[in-house]
Structure formats: C-alpha cells, structure tokens
C-alpha cells in the first residue's frame, strides 16, 4: 500500500473526496515528521512508537572499495512496534481469536508465556 | 507526541472537521495501516518511510536468566525503514557536508 492508496482507503471509508483525505493524511505525517525533526518521540497506542536515536561517529568501510571511511554522527528515527500490531502481524488478520479457540494440545504442551513487552 | 496531538493538528490545520471527526479520521488512518500490515502487505509512505513485514525463521536463543538454549519460533515481524528524506531532515548538518564534497552518495531507495 502506498500513501495514495491509503488516501483512497480513507476517502472511501468516510465518503469524502480524495483531496480532503489527502489533506488529512499529509497533515498526520507532516505533524509526525515535525515532531521527529525536533527530536521528539511519537507514541501511537496499539500501533507503535517512534523515537529519535543519536549515533556517534564511527569508522566504517566503503563496502565496494574496502576503503576506510569515517561515518559522521547522525540521528535516525527508530520504530518500535506496539504489542497489538506485533501480534496482528505475526498471527495474520483472522487471528482476532476468541478465547474459546485456544488449541488445547498446544496449551497443555506449552502454556503461553506471560507477557513482557 | 501522542495521538491526541496529531488529532489537534488535523483539527486546527486541515479545518472543516469537528474534534470528534478529526479523532475518527486519525484513528481510521492507523486502523487502515494496521489492517494492511496484518494482511502481510507493506506500506510505503513517500517522504516518511516504509513499513515492511519480514519473515524470520526459527533460531536458537537462550533464556537470559538460566542460559538454557530455547528455540525462538519462526515469526513475522514489522520493521520500519525511514525514507532518505526523513533521514536528511533529522541531519541537516550532514546533508550540507555531503553537498560540499566527499559525498558518500546515499543510494536512492
């Protein structure tokens, strides 16, 4: 899915124009980018969180020539997936399981580990 | 920054929506993103970055407390690859240095 497909999906869901949906989607990402630019983290519950990590300068190599290069210090955005989304991704969409559907065989063999996120 | 502040930004900067509508729209965006990723599809947001699902095969790990080897099951994980544009925005000084010469030329992706 690209940003324009996301815009289309949002427009469809809310029965308004793509132009309008585009303004909303752009505003959301612009706002997030602006926060990261300021070095501020972002937390979206159920989705994940973004933080800005500072990396010190280190010596690296040009992988093509093997030549030693100094990698200057830098800031990079880092995304940590939230628990809900992590489970969704791992189990697939149908895995919004009702608790009755627990597989008894696996359950008795290995009770689920307690959550530590 | 929390979702509430993103909602405020939509309410104030896009205009024409009530606070409640703005909140619903922001929720919709993250819901659509979640559904797409749950279906195993990646999301590419130009200027921001790509959310990609990666399949990890089973490997051996260790219980950090006891040192016992335990298998880590195969799983799918979500990774975020920031766009070159976002990386450049976070490193204005570095971009300037690149332009000035040395140019380790970051490959476009």
Order of helices and strands of chain B: HHEEEEEHH
Number of helices of chain A: 4
Structural class of chain A: alpha+beta
Could you name the CATH topology of the largest domain in chain A? HU Protein, Chain A
> What structural category arises from helix and sheet content of chain B?
alpha+beta
Number of helices of chain B: 4
Cα-atom radius of gyration of chain B: 20 Å
Summarize the main sheet of chain B. 3 strands, antiparallel
Give the overall silhouette of chain A: extended
- Record the strand order, biggest sheet of chain B: 1-2-5
Radius of gyration of chain A: 21 Å
N-to-C CA distance of chain A: 28 Å
**SSE pattern of chain A:** HHEEEEEHH
Tell me the name of the CATH class of the largest domain in chain A.
Few Secondary Structures
What's the SSE blueprint?
The complex is a heterodimer of chains A (117) and B (109).
Chain A: H1 3-14, H2 18-37, E1 42-44, E2 48-55, E3 58-61, E4 68-71, E5 74-81, H3 83-91, H4 104-109
Antiparallel strand pairs in A: 1-2, 2-5, 3-4
Helix pairs in contact in A: 1-2
Chain B: H1 3-14, H2 19-38, E1 43-45, E2 49-56, E3 59-62, E4 69-72, E5 75-82, H3 84-90, H4 92-100
Antiparallel strand pairs in B: 1-2, 2-5, 3-4
Helix pairs in contact in B: 1-2
């Amino acid at each position: 899915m690209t940003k324009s497909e996301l815009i289309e999906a949002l427009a469809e869901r809310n029965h308004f124009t793509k132009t309008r949906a585009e303004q909303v989607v752009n505003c959301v990402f612009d706002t997030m980018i602006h926060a990261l630019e300021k070095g501020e983290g972002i937390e979206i519950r159920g989705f994940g969180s973004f933080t800005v990590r500072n990396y010190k300068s280190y010596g690296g190599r040009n992988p093509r020539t093997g030549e030693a290069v100094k990698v200057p210090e830098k800031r990079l955005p880092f995304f940590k997936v939230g628990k809900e989304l992590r489970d969704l991704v791992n189990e697939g969409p149908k895995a919004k399981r009702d608790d009755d559907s627990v597989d008894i065989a696996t359950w008795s063999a290995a009770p689920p580990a307690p959550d530590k996120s | 920054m929390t979702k509430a502040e993103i909602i405020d930004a939509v309410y104030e900067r896009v205009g024409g929506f009530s606070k409640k509508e703005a909140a619903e729209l922001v929720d919709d965006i993250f819901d659509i993103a979640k559904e797409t990723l749950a279906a195993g599809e990646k999301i590419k947001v130009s200027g921001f970055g790509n959310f990609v699902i990666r399949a990890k095969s089973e490997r051996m790990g260790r219980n950090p407390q006891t040192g016992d080897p335990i298998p880590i099951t195969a799983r799918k994980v979500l990774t975020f690859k920031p766009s070159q544009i976002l990386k450049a925005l976070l490193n204005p000084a570095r971009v300037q240095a690149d332009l000035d010469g040395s140019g380790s030329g970051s490959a476009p992706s």
